[in-house]
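User: Could you check the structure of this?
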Amino acid sequence: MNAKRNELAAGEAQDVDTLMKGIGDRARAAAKTLANAFTEAKNAALRAAAAALREREADILAANAEDIAGMVAGGSTKALIDRGMLDHARVEAIAKSLEDIVALPDPVGSVIAEWDRPNGLHIERVRTPIGVIGIIFESRPNVTADAGALALKAGNAVILRCGSDTFRSSAAIHRCLVDGLRAAGLPEDSIQLVPTRDRAAVGAMLGGLGGTIDVIVPRGGKSLIARVQSEARVPVFAHLEGVCHVYVHAAADLMMAKKIVVNAKMRRTSICGAAETLLVDKACASSHLAPLVEALQQAGCTIHGDAATQAAAKGVVPATEDDWYKEYLDANIAVGVVDGLDEAIRHVSAYGSHHTDAIVTDDTKAAERFMNEVDSAIVLHNASTQFGDGGEFGMGAEIGIATGKLHARGPVGLEQLTSFKYRVRGSGQTRP
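Assistant: Sure, the predicted structure tokens are below.
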């Protein structure tokens, strides 16, 4: 989408279905070009976009200031405001993420596997672009750049529908991406931002835009995910909430556990990889529970605890059943005591969201059981749940964490934004 289209004012009188159909048609046309684009052209677009982000930082921050003012006036939570806020460091991190994606191998055309058949046929499984990806996200303006860049490098066109609260910020970032595409001679419609806040645009995307969208990736809260899963007429890479757990096992080193637990909860409370529940083994509760709770409290965290936790430390809010399911995205955590590894695994299975869960222990057998039996997209041993991030996995960036089990699971990066086909080479064989 060119800059003029991108600057279409929210609420401007235009039929949304017509608008969205045009976006879909242009994306499909761009996808045909991108599928065969050279790696260097895609990389050149990303380098130019990173440079534009740095050059236009003042404009991006001014747009973001307007968005944040609107969020504050509208009563948004601290967590949502933190997700939406940009500063110099965050703009620089966005630009750096584009450069990190440049450094990654181009997945398109890579041979995943190959083999020969007894009849002489040579078969290859080869990565190919998916086509057109629709991404619906809330609050985080950095997703505009991360999603656009990953889709481009994987040879896909992308249609981005950002949250209304960060509309101006996303539009300012999108203009930098379009600058990069133009500089590299790639279709400007390769990365399009839906230029209206009208919620009908989401419904149009979920309907597939007349067959032009191949997959939808939602990134947001429960209501968005529920709507996408209910209404989508195209495949979905589900990104559910992050009800993440840290389980401190009986054989956990206390100092290590304190460092991991505080980091997992408090480094950034608003991200989906932040720990929302701490489970402490009954066998070490007498020595570990109070110090862990006090370390969290000293870091500014409110504790919602079971009876054992309330008895172990002062200032603990009694936990309700709802607390074990809750994604706080704030300086709150549910804390409970479990009777051994089996109960910890059962608790994670019953209350978790299959996102990211960690065990802290010096017992490698217990760690292996936890990692094998906890059915989450990401499981960690002796590490913070905040490592549940595509950038930390060396993927450069991510669109989100997929918690489903088909095609993509865990961080959705370059490889997850490709499909594959089979190339079969023969020398005249016919089937008897």
